[in-house]
Amino acid sequence: MTVAPSIWDERAERYRDSDAHRSGEDLDLMIDLCEPGEGIRALDVATGGGHVADRLRALGCEVATTDAAPGMNPDFVADAASLPFVDDAFVLAATRYATHHFRDIDAAVGELARVASDRVVAVDTVYQDDAVEEAELIRDADHVRNYSESEWRQLFASTGLAVDSCTVMDKWMNLDAWLARTGCDGDRAAAVRELVASRTRGSDWNLPVIVIRGRAS
Ligand SMILES: C[S@@+](CC[C@H](N)C(=O)[O-])C[C@H]1O[C@@H](n2cnc3c(N)ncnc32)[C@H](O)[C@@H]1O
């Protein structure tokens, strides 16, 4: 099932401007694991505001971007579960903060592995418990599911990707900004705040992320 583009099209500017997306320890580690370099062909799947692609380009990669939403201005409008590229079209395929939206995660990881000749790097929020999943769904009807580290390892293994790096790290995000990005306010925002209350510190809340790399075997 393809994501309804209008939902993301109207959010595009907020994701381009988001501090949580533009920077972070997870983004720095992800870029290192991509092993960027002059002329390396790279793919950024579900590019959103283009923050991964921008960093890879600045380091010399030839980057193509995809996203299901035309409003994100990707090079190719495509669902992650069906990428319009031949096998091994890129040296590396990357995706960040998007897999929890994919309706068919198995197909999407399979596509990342199929189009990358050497490495796949994925970053996303990690499954914590049902309360966080409920909060995510109230905040954003397009949320599907976060996955645990063991589920991620299984997803990679099932496509033949050999995991050679896997790090889970805290990700502190401004709670007001996180809610505002999806237009979550009023009673819905109050319900979310209650569900994540035990994970908050001042104006921020912590939703850990996984940074995982697999090599084609
Ligand atoms: C949070 S944003 C991505 C953030 C971006 N990768 C970054 O690092 O800043 C999530 C993106 O996933 C895209 N998306 C959601 N479901 C998708 C799907 N099934 N296939 C491709 N893109 C999808 C949305 O359009 C949106 O641009």
Characterise this structure.
The protein has helices spanning 5-16, 19-22, 25-34, 51-58, 105-115, 130-139, 149-158, 175-181, 186-195; strands at residues 41-45, 62-67, 76-77, 90-96, 116-125, 161-169, 172-174, 200-201, 204-206, 209-216. It has a single domain (5-127, 143-172, 208-216), classed as Rossmann fold (3-Layer(aba) Sandwich). The protein starts with a helix and ends with a strand. 38% of the residues lie in helices and 25% in strands. Helix 4 (51-58) links the parallel strand 1 (41-45) and strand 2. Bound molecules: S-adenosylmethionine.
CATH architecture: 3-Layer(aba) Sandwich
Q: Using only CA atoms, what is the Rg?
A: 16 Å
Biggest sheet features: 7 strands, mixed
List cofactors, ions and other ligands.
S-adenosylmethionine
Mean pLDDT: 95
Number of domains: 1
Unreliable residue runs: none
Strand percentage, roughly? 25-35%
The CATH class is identified as Alpha Beta
Separate helix tally: 9
How does the overall form come out from the CA principal axes? globular
Spatial order of strands in the largest sheet: 3-2-1-4-5-10-6
